[in-house]
Write a structure and sequence with these properties.
The complex is a heterodimer of chains A (382) and B (379). Chain A is α/β, with parallel strands linked by helices. Chain A has helices at residues 39-53, 77-81, 93-105, 124-131, 134-137, 167-171, 184-196, 270-283, 301-311, 326-337, 362-365, 369-380, and strands spanning 34-38, 57-61, 86-88, 109-113, 147-152, 177-179, 201-206, 213-217, 254-257, 262-266, 288-292, 295-297, 314-321, 347-351. Helix content of chain B is 45%, strand content 8%. Classes of the chains: A alpha/beta (382), B alpha/beta (379).
Chain lengths: 382, 379
């Protein structure tokens, strides 16, 4: 290589040291023990552990490399793993997902970042007609273990197309898994489970919670940091290499607060809201059980139904519009499963059938504590 | 104003090694590649083109008899398909559209299996990894991105530019003139170029996207777009099997050696309908069809082989028998493709258990079983 200086500096490469190859991971924090982390950092470390674990894992998307993503979720990964594994892609979502499918067919495990919820739609065709159906149409011969990370939801005062909740559009498509963590510990575990899954996973990250902090058990230290230095054709993955505690993380809901009077079903950004509601209701003498769905596809109806059989009442809360939303699906299934246990109709609280409004109105649009409490009161009043 | 730019069907600059009459013409850039084809290989090409055409004829007849739900003929495109496919190596990977039957055949896919899709018993039909031949993609233009991503993986696997002909690997993807208007094909060119992916983008310009001529897709030759992406391109006479082989061999070798992507446009003609549901009489003239019938790619190779004394009568006779046998086998095997088990619709939706699929399948099995019970009860 020659060092020419007769060209004008163009782009970041002229001023920032190149990060073309993997660099020493010495500076990276140890991946072990319990640490207090933000939601975003928990995903970063989950990605990092998955990449250390399996040389086939790639991260790709717009600005995920040098910048570390607009939310810095991939911060530091390119420096550690190199440009071949943390790929700054052209600005084309369909191209990102379409090439990820090809990489997966070659044996890689791409983790795509869609920069914002409202920008996933150029990739909608690749996700629904190609990614979702590859395993099915090949009668199981082909697997496409692609993870698509999508920061979603509102509450951050953003401009148009930056606050949407399109999760149901994907949950309606057979062949895709659709999951969403609600706190840092869940995020750390679930991103690794998503990457380890042989199925395509839409991983919805509640961007309004990126700065929330929580204790995360990072698990045992990795035996060696040399895994990512290995470069070559992918071989079969040992199932035992999957993250501890990930079992069920992509399949089941979980009860995050026990109660006796009403079941409040939430997921992603509204779980924290639901917990606040439960706190407020407890002060007024109402005992609320909070269920975090975690996954919309599959939908863990048994966990919700078991809760509703105990409480007799159910309210579902999500940021996405109520019309044809996941609340409708939960309500229908709970009505069918728990008809003789219900003391009130299943109520839904969510966004309105209007495009996501301007930032100055999002507080009123989003299902906050007061609107959920209103629904709780109505359910309790039957 | 100077002279107008050449239209998308211009034949100026097409690489051609055989004239429509089958006369060998020289092109210094590609003569060596063509000369390297031994007479046996040329006869192999001829054989595969004839068999592919027989497949077309039989499949169309089977559709007319109600044995296939639909069929998409490749009639007239045999040279573009066979010529390019002969340039592939075992380790190369193909991402076809839904009309590359002759390529499937060259890659060792049983042509009967290709009809499983059209019979309505399978969405795929063959083991794509075993043949280096991916399943057909019916969403027009979606698969060049898969090819590009696959090629990016090949590069990451270190299988480009090693100099070992057994290891260096390229990816070849076929798509039509209509699909070049899709965003995905253009995005594939962006990704292929910036990654210098070892992929050959092979555009089969058969002049028709169902009823729309190429002039509804472009003002200039489709291959002219590629250099704007930083991808070299070449236009070839798609009815000239030698030229199609030579340009594809060069493009694949560029990919394998680390030279990045190439865009090949093969100008041919869809002699048949878009599919058996289509009626070309509504949108194109019989004069045009007749013009292209006189440029038949199989006639061209036959004329050349005969002229150089490499098509003995006995070969032609054996080939005719082989084609008849293929036709008979296709008829038998297609008719034997029965309805899949109803519960197979629930299989392979996911690679790991999914509670909703499992519950719906269990319900459906009980539902079906309930009829069996009542039928037994009435006996």
């Amino acid at each position: 290589m020659t060092t020419t200086t007769d060209r004008p500096p163009t782009g970041a490469g002229s001023t920032i040291p190149a990060t073309s190859g993997p660099q020493s991971a010495d500076a990276a924090p140890a991946l072990t023990g319990v640490q207090r982390l933000t939601f975003a950092k928990a995903i970063t470390l989950g990605l990092r552990r998955a990449m250390l674990d399996d040389p086939r894992v790639l991260v790709m998307g717009e600005d995920v490399g040098r910048l570390g993503g607009v939310f810095r979720v991939t911060d530091g990964l390119q420096g550690e793993f190199g440009e071949d594994r943390v790929v700054d892609t052209p600005l084309a979502e369909s191209g990102i997902v379409g090439t990820a499918i090809g990489l997966a067919l070659r044996g890689y495990r791409p983790v795509c970042e869609i920069q914002f919820d409202g920008f996933v739609f150029p990739a909608f065709d690749q996700i629904t007609t190609q990614l979702a159906k590859m395993h099915y149409r090949s009668r199981g011969r082909l697997t496409v273990p692609v993870v698509i990370r999508i920061p979603y939801g509102g509450g951050i005062g953003a401009v148009e197309h930056h606050s949407e909740s399109p999760e149901v559009l994907f949950a309606h498509t057979a062949g895709l898994r659709v999951v969403t963590p609600s706190d840092p510990a869940q995020a750390y575990t679930m991103i690794q489970a998503a990457i380890a899954s042989p199925d395509p996973v839409l991983f919805f990250e509640p961007k309004g919670r990126y700065w929330d902090k929580g204790d995360v058990d990072l698990g045992p230290a990795l035996p060696s940091s040399g895994a990512h230095a290995e470069h070559g054709q992918a071989g079969p993955r040992d199932d035992e290499a999957r993250p501890a505690g990930a079992s069920g993380a992509l399949d089941t809901a979980r009860v995050v607060r026990v109660g006796t009077d009403l079941t409040l079903v939430a997921y992603g950004p509204t779980v924290a809201t639901a917990l606040k509601v439960a706190e407020a209701a407890a002060a007024e003498g109402t005992s609320i059980e909070v269920v975090d769905l975690r996954t919309l596809s599959p939908l863990d109806t048994p966990t919700v139904a078991a809760s509703v059989r105990r409480t007799g009442r159910c309210v579902v809360v999500h940021e996405a519009p109520v019309l044809y939303g996941s609340g409708a699906e939960v309500a229908a299934r709970i009505t069918e499963e728990c008809f003789y246990h219900l003391q009130a109709p299943v109520l839904r609280v969510g966004g309105f059938h209007a495009p996501y409004p301007v930032a100055k109105l999002e507080h009123e649009y989003l299902p906050g504590v007061d609107r959920v409490l209103d629904a709780v009161d109505r359910a309790m009043g039957y | 104003m100077t002279t107008p730019p050449p239209g998308p069907l211009s034949e100026v600059g097409l690489v051609r090694l055989l004239t429509p009459a089958g006369e060998r013409v020289s092109d210094p850039r590609y003569d060596d590649a063509a000369a390297a084809l031994a007479p046996d290989t040329l006869r192999g090409m001829y054989r595969d083109m004839v068999l592919a055409r027989r497949f077309d004829t039989e499949a169309t007849a089977l559709q007319r008899q109600g044995e296939l739900a639909l069929f998409a003929q490749a009639l007239g495109q045999e040279a573009a398909q066979v010529g390019s496919a002969y340039a592939l190596r075992r380790q190369d990977q193909v991402f076809p559209s839904y009309r590359e039957h002759a390529v499937a055949h060259v890659r060792g896919v049983d042509l009967a299996d290709v009809l499983r899709l059209f019979r309505g018993v399978d969405h795929g039909g063959w083991d794509s990894a075993a043949h280096g031949f991916h399943l057909y993609t019916l969403v027009v233009g979606a698969h060049p991105l898969h090819a590009t991503g696959y090629a990016m993986g090949v590069a990451r696997d270190g299988l480009v530019g090693t100099g070992d002909p057994e290891r260096d690997t390229a990816v070849l993807t076929y798509f039509g003139d209509g699909s070049t208007s899709q965003g995905d094909v253009n995005e594939a060119m962006v990704f292929a170029a910036v990654n210098q992916a070892p992929v050959v983008l092979f555009c089969v310009n058969n002049q028709w996207a169902i009823s729309e001529p190429t002039t509804k897709q472009a003002r200039v030759p489709l291959a002219n777009r590629a250099p704007g992406f930083g991808i070299p391109s070449v236009r070839v006479d798609g009815n000239d099997v030698l030229a199609c082989y030579a340009v594809t061999a060069e493009a694949l070798e560029r990919a394998r050696s680390g030279g990045g992507p190439t865009f090949v446009e093969a100008l041919t003609y869809r002699m048949g309908a878009h599919t058996t549901s289509d009626d070309p009489g509504k949108y194109r003239s019989s004069e045009q069809e007749e013009f292209w019938r006189r440029r038949d790619p199989i006639d061209r190779l036959r004329a050349y082989l005969s002229a150089i004394g490499e098509l003995p009568e006995v070969f032609g006779a054996e080939l005719a028998d082989e084609a008849d046998a293929l036709g008979a086998r296709l008829r038998t095997e297609v008719r034997a493709m029965g309805k899949p088990a109803t519960t197979s619709m629930f299989e392979h939706v996911y690679a790991t258990p999914h509670a909703v699929v499992d519950a719906e399948r269990a319900w459906f099995e009980r539902y079906e079983a309930s009829f069996a019970d009542s039928e037994e009860g009435t006996r």
